[in-house]
Amino acid sequence: MKEYAIADLLSSDKLPGLQLVAGKGGAGRRIGNVNTIENMDSFDWLRAGDFLLTTGYIYKDDPGQLLYMIERLAQINCAGLGFKTLRYFDALPPELLRRAEQLDFPIVVIPLKYSLADVSNEIADHLRGVEDSWFSQYLSIHNSYNECVLSAGGAKGILDTLHDFIKI
After folding, report:
1. Is 49:30 a contact under the CB 8 Å cutoff?
2. Is 21 exposed, middle or buried (0-12, 13-18, 19+ CB in 10 A)?
3. What is the pTM of this model?
4. Would you list the DSSP string of 63-121?
5. What digits encode the pLDDT tens for the residues 109-148?
6. Phi and psi for 19 in degrees, rounded to 5?
7. Geometric angle at alpha carbon 94, from 33 and 30, rounded to 5°
8. What DSSP character marks residue 5?
9. CA nearest 116: which of 42, 35, 40, 53?
10. What residues form DSSP beta bridges with 108?
11. Is 140 helix (H, G, I), strand (E, B) or coil?
């Protein structure tokens, strides 16, 4: 099963116009969750694989803190940052983009026409689909195994069932 990565988000038909402006080397990073970062305490509950969304509001009075944010997000191994410009920042500071590029930390600019919820829902919908697919596969294996055991298929039946699933 294919995992959902930054590159997949960028190629979404539902959100044309998302633009990777820095960290191009990280476009293959897997997104495991979507979250927002709108306060300085957020770092305490973020985890690897999080794709963060922000308007930059908390950094509008101190843009220098953006560098600190990128460093911390990269350190946590977050997937990337979706930044909605034209709200509190007309453009992202060049030093931020340079540092993100050095860290291969993806920064995706979200056009004004999209809400953060639009991006969040796109990611969440896909992640739920991935989760449902894993769960369906688990149920299929579980049910086949139970059927084999209940029909007294024995070790050979169990091995045959396993063979069918892993295609050796």
Report:
1. yes
2. middle
3. 0.75
4. TTHHHHHHHHHHHHT--EEEEE-SSS-SS--HHHHHHHHHTT--EEEEPTTS-HHHHHH
5. 999 999 999 999 999 888 877 444 454 455 556 566 666 6
6. -130, 125
7. 20
8. B
9. 53
10. 20, 82
11. helix
